[in-house]
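cron nightly-structures :: item 1 of 1
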Amino acid sequence: MFKVTRREFLIMMGAGLAGLIGGYYLPKPLPDEKTKYITNITVNPNEFIIIPFGDLNYVGLGGAGLIAGEEKDFVEELISNNISQLDNFDIHSLPKKEDGEQIIQSEVTIITKDNSNYEITSTNKDFISNIQKYSSDILNKNNELFGNVEVAKTR
């Protein structure tokens, strides 16, 4: 055996203890940030977008949108123009700048700053890459009739 002074012993024990503590230090994992896919698209008042969600198609209408009772005619127009073979649509007006963002199926976010240019964001690349844009005679007619009408805000 060899002789160790008290000072050397404390240094060795301190180094050993520091190594033991350092060896078992587990850093907290970083938050799991998913990649966001973004597209910018211009939707004119006579146009609409379709985002397929499997067997459901989200339809975002530009401009004045549809009048009550026109949904059936609009869906028939989509099917007759071979835009979609499905009749399972979730039809909404695209958000206006004062509405803020719109979240669809908890997967896609739509926002605008000027009611014409939209930023669409999702963590699923397929939703962004499968967005389709079309025009509609019904939306064109409604925009001609109601495009300049200001909606009154209530308190």
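cron nightly-structures :: done
The CA atoms of residues 93 and 143 lie 13 Å apart.
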